[in-house]
Amino acid sequence: MTVADPRFTAEAITPAGKVIVFDDIGCLASWLTESETTIRGAWVASFVAPGDWLLADSAAYLAPPSLRTPMSSGLIALRVGAEADSVRASLGGTLYSWGEVRVRPHDHPVAH
Question: Dihedral through CA 54, CA 77, CA 71, CA 102, nearest 10?
Fold first, then answer.
């Protein structure tokens, strides 16, 4: 898969080591809900530093109202704490935990 913008990238890793790449955090969350595939871990790219990977269940997720993501989930991943608070102060929006993201409705297509 070609990643449109690395700031929104997410991935799941299977027990066999296969990496499944998503170009939007919401697609990963939807896939995990809909798929019966067992995973070893889920990771999301930091919006602030796209080369840095965060464990999906340890990141904070922000949905800024003015930001478009590749598959329209509107979610960005941030480090919990000062980084999330700073970006939220700058862009606005609501902060979510991974558990909240997983149960949040996703109206975008899942291409995986």
Answer: 80
Residue 16 CB contacts under 8 Å (≥ 6 apart), including other chains: none
Handedness of CA 5, 13, 42, 48 (dihedral sign): negative
Is pTM beyond 0.85 here?
A: yes
- Alpha-carbon span 57 to 74, nearest angstrom: 18
pLDDT tens profile 77-112: 999 999 999 999 999 999 999 999 998 766 544 444
* Extended beta strands in 7-106, E state: 10-13, 19-22, 41-45, 53-55, 59-63, 76-79, 94-96
Of 42, 46, 101, 43, the C-alpha closest to 74 is: 101
Return d(Cα 108, Cα 73) in angstroms, integer. 7
